[in-house]
UniProtKB/TrEMBL annotation:
<feature type="domain" description="MTTase N-terminal">
    <location>
        <begin position="83"/>
        <end position="191"/>
    </location>
</feature>
<comment type="function">
    <text>Catalyzes the methylthiolation of N6-threonylcarbamoyladenosine (t(6)A), leading to the formation of 2-methylthio-N6-threonylcarbamoyladenosine (ms(2)t(6)A) at position 37 in tRNAs that read codons beginning with adenine.</text>
</comment>
<dbReference type="Pfam" id="PF00919">
    <property type="entry name" value="UPF0004"/>
</dbReference>
<dbReference type="InterPro" id="IPR013848">
    <property type="entry name" value="Methylthiotransferase_N"/>
</dbReference>
<comment type="similarity">
    <text>Belongs to the methylthiotransferase family. CDKAL1 subfamily.</text>
</comment>
<keyword id="KW-0949">S-adenosyl-L-methionine</keyword>
<dbReference type="InterPro" id="IPR038135">
    <property type="entry name" value="Methylthiotransferase_N_sf"/>
</dbReference>
<feature type="domain" description="Radical SAM core">
    <location>
        <begin position="212"/>
        <end position="444"/>
    </location>
</feature>
<dbReference type="GO" id="GO:0035598">
    <property type="term" value="F:tRNA (N(6)-L-threonylcarbamoyladenosine(37)-C(2))-methylthiotransferase activity"/>
</dbReference>
<keyword id="KW-0812">Transmembrane</keyword>
<dbReference type="InterPro" id="IPR006638">
    <property type="entry name" value="Elp3/MiaA/NifB-like_rSAM"/>
</dbReference>
<keyword id="KW-0808">Transferase</keyword>
<protein>
    <recommendedName>
        <fullName>Threonylcarbamoyladenosine tRNA methylthiotransferase</fullName>
        <ecNumber>2.8.4.5</ecNumber>
    </recommendedName>
</protein>
<dbReference type="InterPro" id="IPR023404">
    <property type="entry name" value="rSAM_horseshoe"/>
</dbReference>
<keyword id="KW-0479">Metal-binding</keyword>
<feature type="transmembrane region" description="Helical">
    <location>
        <begin position="622"/>
        <end position="642"/>
    </location>
</feature>
<dbReference type="Pfam" id="PF04055">
    <property type="entry name" value="Radical_SAM"/>
</dbReference>
Length: 652
């Protein structure tokens, strides 16, 4: 019989033969080093801290029971590194990057990564703590995993920021700065041990093995944590204080991923503008160093991550100069959260609405075609009708190309959770009103007929269109073969809907950089779509705001440009477009073959000029007439055949 318990960092080992300190769970250990240390590696006896079988019966502390504890079933012994791991990610792009690093290490060790939970030997859930919906989704998934009797490891911000959460009892957990030890945690969990690694240490290396969800997109974390202290933010509890990677390490990583064929680099951070303040440098220095590593043929583009107003104010001109660079998207995510200074003070956001205006006005003035996204929290504690009216007026005034609208969610342990709440009915009413305001905009009106350069990196969720982005990060949906992924081309905007912009690739305009190199880290099967938001997840880089609730909106405007956040289908899209999408879906295979012939075109220097026969949408009338003609011909042939048979029968 085992004396049951858990092992974790920072705990003293319990002597063999004594009663466990907590309800019986799994064999207790101190830390992974106890198993993999010198004794374990040398094979010299039992590892320190590992509980060995005893003849005594363990009982729960401070509770007497006449029933003998039953030995739980032991997992089937299998060779480490041969199992299949299901990885599920909730949250922002930083979380997605962490999952890609963990998947890369597991793949390099021999584990197979899958997106099918039923056939997996272990589930690895990377969690988000920004808002209640994402954490609720995590809780639901944990319950499913337990019901399926699967070993489970929970990573990310929830276990790091809420270590005592009841739902995490009896589960292996790994902190945000321990992702480089995921292989060890998975190995021990598969053996039946409960592992808890949460202590903070040095930043994980940027050169760990990585399996990208989209091989053309590299999510590059430039720092962890932030310098703020927002009263509603739970992420600070998990990610902690600011910790920046060095410029040399980040520039080196960019050089590496470009050589691997990456076509888009996303800088990820809880607050990009605060970068370097802990190591004596700043964001403009980093951006200039990264831009210097980008190919001059514009085959790889850079997207700058979310930045709060306080730390960008002093560098507006320098950042504007970077945003004008040909290899940098003219796009920036700057959360305002409220249009009221009183509410911003209660949030402890450390800036005013006037300072937010200065950021937006300056960048729109200095950067042609500048696109700015923002976030709004409706119903923050203490928000009055007058405060909310100021927010509505701000949204109406700027009509920014993208707005994430969210209701306030009190997060346990934050100062805002103790504040007097706005009635929930008022919160919902304000959210609906603000949503209605921005939906009244016509963000893409006037774009028809324009020609834009687009960088194509993804397949749309409809499985038919490819997703490209303009220099201003406006999403353009084009019909083209998959071989165009990772290329750039000129596209003529043909139609717009409320949420989507459609275009046609112009013949002879496709430019392909050096062919992507398949690295040893890309062991996972390639995904056809790159979505940072999983179902029920929270997907944003903004402190306290996510895009997992139905109040989140991707909105457009006229002042700073038009940036749809994701390829979506709207009821406002013309019926003709919807019919064409359905018809084109049937011809994807043939079009892919056409794309293969394009890929075989000879290269010129480091670039390929591809004469592409544009795949325009086939008109409905043409297809219908062709179908009728084929049907008529088949009918005539059948009648001729039957007539011949009848004639031959009559002759006899």
């Amino acid at each position: 019989m085992f004396a049951w318990g858990i092992w974790s960092e920072g705990e003293n080992p319990t002597r063999l033969g004594t009663t466990a300190r907590r309800p019986p769970l799994q064999p207790e250990m101190e830390d992974i080093e106890d198993v993999l240390g010198p004794a374990g590696l040398a094979g010299g006896g039992a590892p320190p801290g590992l509980r060995l079988p005893l003849s005594t019966v363990a009982v729960k502390p401070k509770r007497r029971s006449s029933r003998v504890a039953q030995t739980p079933p032991q997992p089937e012994a299998r060779i480490p590194g041969t199992q299949t791991i299901y990885v599920k990610t909730f949250g922002c792009s930083h979380n997605q990057s962490d999952s890609e690093y963990m998947s890369g290490q597991l793949s390099a060790f021999g584990y197979a990564i899958t997106d099918e939970p039923e056939g997996a030997d272990l589930w690895l859930i990377n969690t988000c703590t920004v808002k209640n919906p994402s954490q609720s989704a995590m809780t639901t998934l944990i319950s499913k995993c337990k019901n399926a009797n699967k070993p489970l490891v929970v990573a990310g911000c929830v276990p790091q920021g809420s270590q005592g959460l009841k739902e995490l009892e009896g589960i292996s957990i790994i902190g945000v700065q321990q992702i480089d030890r995921v292989v060890e945690v998975v190995e021990e969990t598969l053996k039946g041990h409960e592992v808890r690694l949460l202590s903070r240490k040095t930043l994980p290396s940027l050169d760990l093995p990585k399996v990208r969800k989209n091989k053309f997109i590299e999510i590059l974390p430039i720092n962890v944590g932030c310098l703020g202290a927002c009263t509603y933010c739970k992420t600070k509890h998990a990610r902690g204080h600011l910790g920046s990677y060095t410029i040399d390490s980040l520039a080196g990583r960019v050089k590496t991923v470009v050589s691997e064929g990456v076509r888009e680099i996303w800088l990820s951070s809880e607050d990009t503008g605060a970068y370097g303040r802990d190591i004596g440098t700043n964001l403009p220095n980093l951006l200039n160093a990264i831009v210097a590593e980008l190919p001059v043929d514009r085959s790889t583009m850079l997207r700058i991550g979310m930045t709060n107003p306080p730390f960008i104010l002093e560098h507006l001109k320098e950042i504007a100069a970077v945003l004008r660079h040909p290899c940098v998207y003219s796009f920036l995510h700057v959360p305002v959260q409220s249009g009221s200074d009183a509410v911003l003070t209660a949030m402890n956001r450390e800036y005013t609405v006037g300072e937010f205006r200065k950021v937006v006005d300056t960048l729109c003035e200095l950067v042609p075609g500048m696109q700015i996204a923002t976030d709004i929290i409706c119903g923050f504690p203490g928000e009055t009708d007058e405060d909310f009216a100021e927010t509505v007026n701000l949204v109406k005034e700027y009509q920014l190309p993208q707005v994430h609208i969210s209701q306030f969610y009190p997060r346990p342990g934050t100062p805002a959770a103790r504040m007097k709440k706005v009635p929930s009915n008022d919160v919902k009413k304000r959210s609906r009103e603000l949503t209605s305001v921005f939906e009244s905009f016509s963000p893409y009106q006037g774009m028809e007929g324009k020609v834009e350069r687009v960088w194509i990196t993804e397949i749309a969720t409809d499985g038919v269109h490819l997703v490209g982005h303009t220099k201003g990060y406006i999403q353009v949906l084009v019909i083209a073969p998959d071989s165009m992924l990772g290329t750039s081309a000129d596209a003529k905007i043909t139609s717009v809907g409320r949420w989507s912009v459609f275009g046609e690739v112009i013949e002879g305009s496709v430019v392909v950089g050096e062919a992507p190199k398949q690295t040893s880290n890309e062991l996972q099967k390639e995904q056809k779509q790159n979505q940072l938001e999983e179902s029920g997840c929270c997907g944003t880089e903004s402190c306290g705001t996510c895009v997992c609730s139905d109040t989140v909106q991707h909105c457009g405007a006229e002042q700073c440009g038009n940036t749809p956040d994701a390829p979506q289908t709207s009821g406002d899209v013309d019926r003709q477009e919807a019919i064409q999408s359905t018809l084109v879906r049937r011809n994807v295979e043939g079009l892919t073959k056409a794309g293969e012939s394009i890929a075989a075109a000879p290269s010129v220097g480091k670039e390929q000029q591809v004469n592409l026969v544009t795949r325009r949408g086939v008109s409905v009338d043409t297809i219908l007439w062709c179908g009728l003609a084929v049907s008529f011909a088949a009918t005539v042939a059948l009648l001729v055949l039957l007539t011949g048979k009848v004639s031959s029968t009559s002759s006899y």
